[in-house]
Amino acid sequence: RPILRGDYRPPAWLVDHVDLELELAAESTRVLAHLDVRRNPEALDREPLRLSGVELKTRRVLVDGQPLADRQRTMDGESMVIGGVPDVARITTEVEIHPERNTALEGLYAAGSSLLTQCEAEGFRKITWFPDRPDVMATFRVRLIADRARYPLLLSNGNQLESGELEDGRHYAVWEDPFPKPSYLFAVVAADLAVLEDHFTTRSGRQVALKVYSEPVNLHRLDHAMASLKRAMAWDEERWGLEYDLDVYHIIATHDFNMGAMENKSLNIFNARYVLADPDTATDADYEAVEAVIGHEYFHNWTGNRVTCRDWFQLTLKEGLTVFRDQEFTADLRSRAVKRIADVATLMARQFPEDAGPMAHSVRPERYIEINNFYTATVYEKGAEVVRMYQTLLGREGFRRGLDLYFERHDGQAVTCDDFLAAMADANDRDLTQFARWYAQVGTPRLEMTTDYDHERGHYILRFRQSLSAHPDNEQRGPLMVPVKIGFLGPDNQPLPVTRVGEDGEGAETRLLVLTNVDAEFRFDQLPPDALPSVLRDFSAPVRLDYDWSDEQLARLAGHDPDPFSRWQAMRRLAERVLTAAIEAGARLPDAVELLIAAWKAVLEDETLDPALAAELLSLPSEAELAQQRDPVDVDCIHESRKALLMRLSQVLEPVLRARYLACRDGAAWSDSPEAVGRRALSNLILNLMLDGQCEAADGLAVDHYESADNMTDRMGALKALVHGRVGAADRALRGFEDRYRDDPLVMDKWFAVQASVAGADAVRRIEALMAHPAFSLKNPNKVRALLGTFGLHNPTGFHAADGSGYALMGRVIRELDGINPQVAARLATVFNRWQAYGAERAGRMRGELEAIADKKGLSPDVEEIVKAALRAG
Ligand code: ARG
Ligand code: ZN
């Protein structure tokens, strides 16, 4: 059943050109396709032509204009196998599809009053018969026909060649994309939308028309998206020398979308949440996310489209690289320190659990049943860390040389992660053979560090031992090449120059060590025996580092490490120690809490510190993250321990918190300057803390904060504080919010999410009531994520309610959703992943739900793959 990476074979047939005609209507769309096919000279043997098709009503199939006799075509699963095709031929098919019935949102589907497509990974086969694999690249010419009144806008990839009127109120448009592309980048839009237009002149003088579309009511919310697009285009030229290559670039916002966005050539289709933004409806985090995702999809034009993936096992080739690029984009435009911390925090919160879960896979997976299940944090975010390590090892210039060579060699091709590695190695004359293991290893590698001092010779010694997790795919896997950035603090907490034994002169304060063996030893002279090591600065490799720093040492690093990431990491470790000790003592805080309080106080009182960075330093690990590290997981004790810590911190520090809060609230009108964004982040964090701590008069502050808010960041921050603090005024605020934003689906997502995360066993009843709300729909992925995703992932005491009601609700939803949208159902099903760690009673109930899902008749392969893996792990 699973598809194996090792089974790759070059396509037996190529398609040079595709001519499509779509007669578009929501109930039924007719698709006429002409494929210019020829035998692939590189094919391993002479196989018949195979075309993939799913849920197509086939009207006719012709070869070189001749109808096909029935015996010439046979079905093999999703494939139509056609025998006797001449080595060069034109295949014609005509099919009928039903966009309105397509609730899976894959292929051509109806979204509101629009028709649009999502083809990655394997959606094109739901539109027409085709060898639907990324190493088959064709030029496309697309003729669209539709009712003019209903669909005045007709778009596809590339440039528009002509358009005009037809009889019966219909019209047509013809589009041509000169760049050969895989079918997954094909897109069509038929809609009635408003547009914001602008233009960009590339470095070499090309005038590019930029068009961002949304429903007319949201036209005023497109400016930030447009500005972000222009910044992305300029940044890609400046940082990487990459220019846009067509005369037009379209972005379409839709409310019905399975993922974040899609990089279809010149016709990006976006989840509206990553396009629409104005201060009244979008938070600062939304603003940053819009900019990042617009950048991400734009950057795919080179890393993904011009150079694409040979097969879906190589997904990280484009996704890891493009995430790395969008991370750098944000870092260059905003605060590099805050961005790095936020990215690593996300990796630890989302990817580390994948590594430890039943679906653990390498960044380049070895096998899959449903490829949609592998659009994961591992392929994306850990993949980005792998790309970042090349840059760490080769330096910025070396990395750039490697990327230049990659484009020089592979523009217009469908390639592999090995090709990427080869370009990096060849451009820098480096042997990266060992580095390739990062593509194959599964799980989070562990690095154990010990320190020693050779008094005789005056050497300070760092020793490392690396290990991989126990996983069949890791057997006989040798050691990884691990870049480790280090530094030392002196007794006065000042950074020390680092000199390795044998080196002359004074070393820099941060040095790169490259580990290549299981055991590695590094000696330094000119360091005092009590130098304090700071290790894995900038998170230079995606590993778990173990070293037994004392609590005091962590507090020193948290206060003084010159590397902001390391400060954050030390603060996190210290908080985790305090919380772990508390959890083990039945929610009683250990003495080490005093060190944490002092570290927090220093951060709060440091007026020179960027408030956005302060907010990162003051964020505690979530209950879900604490649960990850425990077996068995005591859901309630984790909750109580975290609450006890929040109470203590906020009560002891109340005057400091209040002062910093007031200093952040300067009363100036809304602005999106980094400075203002940072102040809002910190003031909202403090507000929530004071409510968690039940500080005196905090309720009043929250009500004030809510009522005076002139932007969504403050409104949401205060609403969360009121609702989670169970303040009396919360219900009125929720009702007022609902009245105001009833018709705004994106804002209502926030309203659902803030309620879905309120802790406690009564959460289940609340979720059920919210599911009956008129604004909720299981058919809308954003709503499912906002309400049920939040409940399952961010509300442990609710989801794991002892009577099993949270599990039963989730099980029911997954079974129903499976029949509507398998991709979204499969994502949701991962909430059961670590079921066996929750104690016998809860484990039994979760297992029961998993089995009930597995037993459902007609279960999708998407959900089946996830659920069976979870059950096997028991
Ligand atoms: N390539 C898109 C992006 O990362 C994601 C599309 C994934 N879609 C899917 N159905 N798996 O920008
Ligand atoms: Zn992407």
TrEMBL record:
Q: What is its EC number?
A: 3.4.11.2
Which cofactors does this gene product need?
Zn(2+)
Keywords of the record:
Aminopeptidase, Hydrolase, Metal-binding, Metalloprotease, Protease, Zinc
Do you know which SUPFAM superfamilies this protein is assigned to? Leukotriene A4 hydrolase N-terminal domain, Metalloproteases ('zincins'), catalytic domain
Q: Which InterPro entries match?
A: Aminopeptidase_N-like_N, Aminopeptidase_N-like_N_sf, PepN_Ig-like_sf, Peptidase_M1, Peptidase_M1_dom, Peptidase_M1_pepN, Peptidase_M1_pepN_C, Peptidase_M1_pepN_C_sf
Under Gene3D superfamilies, the record lists:
2.60.40.1840, 3.30.2010.30, Neutral Protease Domain 2 (1.10.390.10), Peptidase M1, alanyl aminopeptidase, C-terminal domain (1.25.50.10), tricorn interacting facor f3 domain (2.60.40.1730)
Question: Which GO biological-process labels does this protein carry?
Answer: proteolysis
- Respond yes or no to whether keyword Ribosomal protein is given for this record: no
Catalytic reaction(s) noted: Release of an N-terminal amino acid, Xaa-|-Yaa- from a peptide, amide or arylamide. Xaa is preferably Ala, but may be most amino acids including Pro (slow action). When a terminal hydrophobic residue is followed by a prolyl residue, the two may be released as an intact Xaa-Pro dipeptide
Superkingdom as given in the UniProt entry? Bacteria
NCBIfam families attached here? Answer: pepN_proteo
Under PANTHER family, the record lists:
PUROMYCIN-SENSITIVE AMINOPEPTIDASE (PTHR46322)
Which family does the record claim for this protein? Belongs to the peptidase M1 family.
Q: What is this protein called?
A: Aminopeptidase N
Q: Which organism's genome codes for this protein?
A: Wenzhouxiangella marina
Starting at the broadest rank, the lineage of the source organism is: Bacteria, Pseudomonadati, Pseudomonadota, Gammaproteobacteria, Chromatiales
